[in-house]
Design goal:
Chain lengths: 114, 165
């Protein structure tokens, strides 16, 4: 997996994930992801549009990072997951505790209202 | 299983080998013209179960092997996972409930929930030297999970048939 960072409009921190989010892929991005979410307060948009697959270990990573950011007083939104990835997220109820958005306005709204 | 599998793979019980399993499912999808949604269900369930076996089945660090067999029937896919690790029955494991808040959400424990959600049947049989897990995916032509989980498979089909090679 790969992780890239970019600053988006309105001061939102974009974390772009790509690849297969199984245990192997998750191990490749875990440290960098945690460093970004646990060291400062931010509004974080996690772009999942290039994540081709997610397993339970990947969901664990998303939850742990959302929790870390919440402890810092910030928030996190999941952005543009594929249908298959979103189906997995919803099967575990993650969409009820971390917002999922499919366009930037909705993502900005979710971050603003969190 | 009474019939020879349509395909099978044996991987070492190491996390690195999980990608070999994923690539095997990709090849199955092409060879048997599986709908993308069905291939994804198989990939997800195999990844979850194999990850569990490899992560927890060999606490003594010994080398193990995992064999996966695949049967393509007109109305269903059957996948058997044989391992030679510690006994564990995921079909009797009760996963945690859905989270009510981010703060209360447990870190893990979702793999078996996903397997139950994305397969139609999950069976476990304790083998002499490990476990045999059987997954059934119905509606093989559409790729959609069955609305209702089908009944228990014929127990005669669930007996471990042979040891790992």
């Amino acid at each position: 997996m790969e992780l890239a960072v970019n600053e988006l409009d309105s001061g939102i921190l974009g974390i772009n994930l790509s690849g297969r989010m199984d245990i192997i892929g998750t191990q490749q991005i875990d440290l960098k992801f945690t460093a970004l979410t646990s060291t400062r307060r931010a509004q974080i948009l996690v772009d999942l549009s290039k994540v081709t697959f997610i397993a339970s270990i990947g969901i664990r990573t998303l939850i742990n990072n959302a929790k870390a950011q919440k402890l810092r007083g910030g928030c996190m939104v999941l952005y543009k997951p594929s249908n298959q990835v979103e189906e997995v997220l919803k099967a575990t109820g993650i969409h009820t505790i971390i917002p999922i958005a499919h366009d930037f306005d909705a993502a900005r709204g979710a971050l603003g209202s969190a | 299983m009474a019939t020879e599998p349509s395909s099978q793979i044996v991987i070492q019980a190491r996390l690195e080998a999980l990608r070999d399993l994923a690539h095997w499912v990709e090849r199955l999808a092409a060879e048997f013209s599986l709908p993308a949604a069905l291939a994804h269900r198989i990939d997800l369930c195999l990844t979850e179960l194999a990850t569990n076996v490899i992560s927890y089945g060999y606490p003594d660090g010994r080398a193990g092997a995992v064999r996966v067999r695949f049967w393509r029937h007109a109305d269903r896919i059957v996948v058997c996972i044989d391992d030679d690790g510690m006994p564990f029955d995921p079909s009797s494991y009760e996963p945690p409930g859905l989270p009510s808040s981010l703060s209360d959400a447990p870190g893990g424990g979702r793999g078996i929930r996903l397997v139950r959600s994305f397969s139609d049947e999950l069976h476990h049989v304790a083998a002499t030297t490990g476990n045999q897990l059987t997954l059934v995916f119905r509606d093989a032509g559409t790729g959609s999970p069955s609305t209702a989980r089908a009944g228990v498979q014929d127990p005669a089909d669930l007996k471990p048939t042979q040891q790992l090679p």
